[in-house]
Amino acid sequence: MHHAQREQSFLNSGLCRRTALRLIVSGGSMAILAACGGSTSPAATTSAPAATPAPASSAPTPGAAVATAAPASASGTSTTSATAAAPAQAAAKTGGTLNVALADLATENLDTILAAPNLNVVPLIYEPLLQYDEKGNLVPWLAESWEMSPDGKLWTFNIRKGVKWTSGDELTSEDVKFSIERYSSDASTSAWSPMHRQTVDQVETPDRYTVKVHSKTPPYLFYPDAIAGTWIHPKAYFDQAGLGTFSKQPVGTGPWKLTRFTPGVSAELAGNKEYWGPSMNKPTWDNLVLFNTPEESTRMAMLKRGEADIVGVSWDNAVALRGQGYQLRQTRASTLPALFFIGYWNQPGPTSDQRVREALDIAIDRQELSDSFFKGFAKPGAGNFALTDLHYGFDPIWYSTRYEPDRARQLLQDAGYPGKFRDPTVNIFTVSQVGWEPDFLQVIAGYWQAVGVQTQLVPMDFTAMRNGWTAPDPKMMGGVATWIGVGGGAAGNSMPAQQNNMTSPGVNQAAHDPELDRMFADMIAELDANKRLEMWHQVQQKAFSLHSILGVCRVFDQYAVSDKVGEWTGLDYLPGALIMGLSGVQHR
What we know:
- 29% of the residues lie in helices and 20% in strands.
- By secondary structure, it is an alpha+beta fold.
- It folds into two domains: 3-45 and 333-555, Dipeptide-binding Protein, domain 3, CATH 3.10.105; 68-78 and 88-250 and 564-587, Dipeptide-binding Protein, Domain 1 (Dipeptide-binding Protein, domain 1).
- The strands form seven sheets. It has a seven-stranded mixed beta sheet with strand order 10-11-12-3-13-22-14. The protein has a five-stranded mixed beta sheet with strand order 18-17-19-15-20, sandwiched between helices. The protein has a four-stranded antiparallel beta sheet with strand order 6-7-9-8.
- Helix 2 packs parallel to helix 14.
- Residues 1-89 have low confidence and may be disordered.
């Protein structure tokens, strides 16, 4: 969806949510409009849409380009550059405390190399060497520039001078080497670690501001994408404080400093007054408080009492609050709910059969979900939780899935479902990454039940779900886990994330196919850009045929704001859009 179209957010289609949900779960899709007596409303804007482009001058932009043989994420060619100085801007209103009520404050884990770090807190504190711009191109961040040798076996990163940790020490090449080696170690369970381990042979620091990463054979030509997902952290502080303190009291280079963290309750941060970065990422608020507030009714009450300034709301309540005079905002990135058949090859249940997985895929009416459940704030279809038409070499096959319930029933019959399987039940593990997820999964279960599939919703804590998923826990293998991927609708390509999703060593346990593994390995080592792009299309088509990850739709989440909140001009086009954009939230 084009940015300008996103500003024209589709509004309430006239469907009462509870009735729509009840009817969809019971298979009565055709009765919804009649039961609710509604009709689709014309598109209309939110009171003050946040989806406005950040000023081009406020982010790192190309200066004197350094030619390199490395592939760009979106185009297959790349140049890298130092950051151009941003022009002077009028002083913005600053000060005060910005209070944000979140549906889930997430895990208490603040160590970046583990499987589920707190992605509400970590991105505010730590930063990567490279970052994505709004068009999905990699640009310098903590690195001033980077280049790849012609044979793809040496990556050189030139570290930005004068960047300070919040401890007061300067960022150096030793910190970068330390971070890469931690991600590459056996102790790391980060989603980025398999790509580091696959690539990194050794890391050298010839001087204080230069890092050289020697690659294994064959080279991994998308390694900069892994670097863009790698949070750099301070070696001296780690050595002094030890892992325990480091994991609870992080020190970073980012726009915010953690002052207090109460797991399950709140995170309190102070603006980093010495922050080195571009103006669009410098906080205009002195303090930031994130509240763990699972109940939407509580979040709305906090907004009305003046206790919260930004709250995520459902589409029904977004419409209602706007009618009461509250303004709405939305990030430039969208949310993409995806369904993972985790470890489907590890067990003899229904999802071990490709025909069953395909049947479950085509049993979902994505258009109806977008129009009815998401009230028009969604676009049907997508590749998986980190792959849409915003990304490098996107293959249109991902948008070819049609709603075909009759064919789904035939596929199930061909697979011998249910009689062939000792236990024909498909477990759906439900958590609350976002407030609407439990209801959404009930609707998905309804679609599957409508074609004859037995389902069971299994409520779980997010951390327990994610840890069991990646462990892997035998009780979870073959079940369905939802991953609500903001990255699916965000700028930038993440080839390492695709490797996690598509290949056998991937952390996400989402595919296990020797032919796909070979195809992927050949593709990422191909030096010819045109050939590499052709091979990437072939990889996607093979991955699509497995039906192991079902991208459902792109959803544009709505946030109600207090009268203190002005425009949103931060990095809200990146994965983790709300959190990444908080530094750019302006005062009204």
